[in-house]
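Appendix B: complex inputs.
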Amino acid sequence: MTVQTINRAGTLLLVVFTLTAPWVLPLFVDSFWVDIYSEILIWSLLAASVNLLFGYVGLLSFGQALYFGMGMYGVAIGIAKLGFGFWGGFGFGVVLATAMAAVAGVLAVRLTWHYFAIITVVFSLIFYFLALSWKPLTGGDDGLPFGMPPLISIGDFELTLTDPDVQYFFIVLMVGACYALMGRIISSPLGRAFVTVRENDLRASLIGLNVYMIRLSAFIVSGFIAGVAGALFALFGRYASANFMFYHVSGEAVVWAIIGGVGTLFGPIVGTSLLIVLREELSHVWAHYPILVGIVVILTVIFAPKGIGGIWTSLVHRFAGANAGKGGDQ
Amino acid sequence: MELTIALALNGIVWGLIIALIALGLSIIFGLLDIINIAHGDFFMVGTVLAWFVAETTGNYWLAFLIVPIIGFALGALIEYTVIQPIKNAAALSIVATFGLAIILQESVRATFGATPERMLPPIHDTIPMFGIEYEVYRLFAAAASIAAIGLFFLFLHRSKLGTWMRAVRFDPETATAMGIPARRIYLMTFAIGFAMASLGGVVAAPITTVYFEAGVDILPFCFMAVIIGGLGNLGGTVAAAVLLAFFEGVITSFTDPTFARIGSLCLMSLVLMIRPHGIFAGATR
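Resulting structure:
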């Protein structure tokens, strides 16, 4: 059993679970967990956008909420104010977020390390305050609700997200497409270039890589991913709100990514699942459970900076090494 | 016009308090190379502790003595348990201090409660100034901040420990080789940073609301002062804090305060892009 087969089996398990969740989950737990699982999938994309930047290019962004918010507002404004249909609104949100990332990225990736983290927060704060004060367009604090247009409508036949199964599989499809895209990019020459820049940007530039353009493309892709997450979340909650653009949302995404394990494709899903399940389970029992989250974050940074993904990788390697040639049901 | 004067004066007072807090942020960044997301919460802890002292002893002035000492002790404890172990993972220090911020906020919410409290200023008088009646307590707050900032600069430039702090910042290896206990200097710097933020909290407690999310509101402003003044340029930080708060006060009297905030944030991005060492860099180097 090689490392690769174990990882493939893990991925397969995740895919099978995701595809059967609406029927399998209610057998064991309350059916609202299906909704929570869709939420986890959406938020995991935001964590994945942090992971793509930090885990693969080495840039820690504390402002991904900006692109998430742009995706949200794109959908809400597109549908509620501009009269777009479902796909028009969705596309508008994603395009808006990607364009925002392109503009912000041109400026932000000139900086690295702490300065990069600060400038990304500053950009997100600027637009957070704008969204708060521009009430006629954004609804400010109250948010901007919208009615759900149909996904497809041919004659009498209509598919809308108000049907829970349609909503679930729409989210799964979109999230799956994003992970496929990220997986494709990471294993492409561009993905190799990302890692080269992360490991040693001077050497990368000396072997002829355009470090600036590589960082910028990573920034735009991660803005796109965060934008899809925001657009999906707007459709999921049927509204957009400035609160989702605040830096605490960005910070949470960073926490999910770090705990899940940066530099692994599925780490963000693991981290997001763990922390959202923890929230759902603990918030009834102990209202101050975030103290526990804070402690877990600090312990992770100190003792397992590679997160759960890192622990998994080293376990799998040990298992594959010890059982070379033998079978196992990992 | 009267509103403008009042808001401009308020701005200067707030600017001085922010300067006190931001100095703590700046020395922590300069010496330990840590972006301290929890710094606003150090301030918040200060306001809450001041509230507790005033409630239990009935004497607000005691807080000036007690709270910075508690702040120093808490800072030392945090440095020892959290900051020291993450020294090797500098990139993740932001994440660790974010975790710290969550812990501090939730702990305060658990003990102090989620409802904002208002503290009555210990001095109720007003005096005429520039054609308006101005609260004496705010003048006191400004004077207290100036005194604290002055003491800090005196400490940094005239005492042995202050000189050691500057030496470790300049070159930690040489400083260690010369027998300066760098490890303890890091601990002390972080503790002083916490103490200064909590003292800022004591000064500000009667003129702001005491609640567990107060730090979240103040943190961006502290960062603006530190960045625009120049990272590690302590005099620049003080000047930037006062100027920013003054202009935000003036702008607020004409229009929506969020526009003033957006303006400051845009200025901060410009400084980061064009003059990452701050707008006063030429004057001090």
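The domain at 3-322 of chain A is CATH 1.10.3470 (ABC transporter involved in vitamin B12 uptake, BtuC).
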